[in-house]
């Protein structure tokens, strides 16, 4: 399963960007529009295009970071964790030209109605209080066909299954906007509040099910898995794209492969976050696993 491994730099590059505007789109989502001098060189592949965000620490006004080209990851890891830029993974919700801008939809997890965020993380806290002119750096693609796009249905696919929570909603929106007219799609989206529903434009023949966590009434439960279990799925060859909390994503994949008979090669599943773990924790796990596997070679 893909989680948050450091991407290869090429065809990605660092861009200095600043906040152009922010817009509270719904109770749980703030959309931040970024601009920057060299953004004409950025090229989103659309769909679920991922990129890396480098945020300042709370006591800094801009991220402390050296763009060392291909050696950036080693250089970043060697920096003092209390001073180096905080790295997080997000989705390019939409890129536009003239003016050169792109949008990112941040889910405000762990932020209460009064704006307090005791259970949140640095990216979410940053997004909740960001304003025009705030600066950060991003590692983003420079060609549309790049390794940061996972949604790649093979030839012969008859219909698409998409499932996600609020962190995956920007990717699902990008995928629906990309699908060719008439493509059959069955979509399950888990949101925190009724008002977190979004209009998701596109030409696909999409059957959308919104699952509101409050209304689902299953604290600690698996509302998307339950909805999937109960769903009548179309005939034909499917391609599934699943993202959200890592444990939930694994359970959904298991259901599709073991109980529904999906070919495992046609199920793309990605943990966008894991309950109780920060992105640093996930990077540390991946690094330790890579070191252990290298020592066995
Ligand atoms: C490929 C990819 C694309 C992504 N795209 C987006 C995107 O477009 N928009 C978006 O909002 N997120 C997106 N995410 C998810 C985002 O990277 C994580 O939610 C990230 O952990 C947020 O960083 P943080 O600093 O706020 O929290 P962290 O410091 O990483 O975590 C702090 C605590 O918050 C918990 N936590 C993290 N996320 C959530 C959550 N959603 N709900 C409840 N608790 C949570 C963690 O388990 C941890 O206990 C994406 C992730 C991946 C891998």
Task: Describe what this molecule looks like in 3D.
With 297 residues, the chain is α/β, with parallel strands linked by helices. The protein has 2 domains: 12-141, Elongation Factor Tu (Ef-tu), domain 3, CATH 2.40.30.10; 159-273, Rossmann fold, CATH 3.40.50. Helices cover 23% and strands 30% of the residues. The chain contains 7 helices and 12 strands. The chain has helices at residues 72-78, 122-129, 169-178, 213-216, 223-230, 246-259, 279-296; strands spanning 12-26, 29-35, 50-55, 86-91, 94-96, 101-107, 135-141, 159-164, 184-191, 205-212, 238-245, 267-273. The strands form 2 sheets. The protein has a 7-stranded antiparallel β-sheet with strand order 4-3-7-1-2-6-5. A 5-stranded parallel β-sheet has the order 10-9-8-11-12, with helices on both faces. Strand 1 and strand 2 (29-35) form a beta hairpin. The longest helix has 18 residues, at 279-296. It is globular. The two termini are 22 Å apart. Mean pLDDT is 91; it is low at 1-9. The chain binds flavin-adenine dinucleotide. The site of flavin-adenine dinucleotide has 27 residues, from strand 4, strand 6, helix 2 and strand 12.
């Amino acid at each position: 399963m893909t989680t948050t491994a450091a991407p290869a730099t090429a065809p990605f590059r660092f861009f200095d960007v600043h906040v152009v505007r922010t817009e509270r789109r719904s109770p749980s989502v703030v959309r931040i529009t970024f601009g920057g001098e060299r953004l004409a060189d950025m090229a989103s592949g659309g769909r679920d295009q991922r990129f890396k965000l480098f945020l300042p620490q709370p006591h800094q006004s801009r991220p402390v970071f050296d763009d060392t080209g291909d050696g950036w990851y080693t250089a970043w890891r060697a920096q003092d964790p209390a001073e180096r830029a905080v790295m997080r993974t997000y989705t390019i919700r939409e890129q536009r030209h003239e003016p050169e801008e792109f949008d990112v939809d941040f889910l405000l997890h762990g932020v209460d109605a009064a704006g307090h965020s005791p259970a949140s993380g640095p990216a979410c806290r940053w997004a909740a209080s960001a304003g025009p002119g705030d600066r950060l750096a991003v590692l983003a693609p420079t060609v549309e066909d790049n390794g940061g796009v996972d949604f790649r249905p093979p030839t012969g696919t008859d219909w698409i299954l998409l499932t996600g929570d609020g962190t995956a909603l920007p990717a699902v929106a990008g995928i629906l906007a990309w699908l060719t007219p008439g493509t059959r799609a069955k979509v399950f989206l888990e949101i925190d509040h009724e008002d977190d529903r979004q209009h998701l434009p596109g030409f696909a023949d999409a059957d959308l099910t919104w699952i509101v966590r409050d209304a689902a009434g299953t604290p600690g439960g698996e509302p998307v898995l339950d909805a999937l279990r109960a769903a009548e799925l179309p005939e034909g060859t499917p391609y599934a794209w699943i993202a959200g909390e890592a444990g939930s994503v694994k359970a959904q994949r298991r259901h599709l492969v073991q109980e529904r008979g999906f070919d495992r090669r046609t199920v793309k599943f990605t943990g966008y976050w894991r309950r109780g773990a920060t992105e640093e924790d996930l990077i540390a796990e991946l690094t330790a696993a890579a070191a252990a596997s290298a020592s066995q070679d």
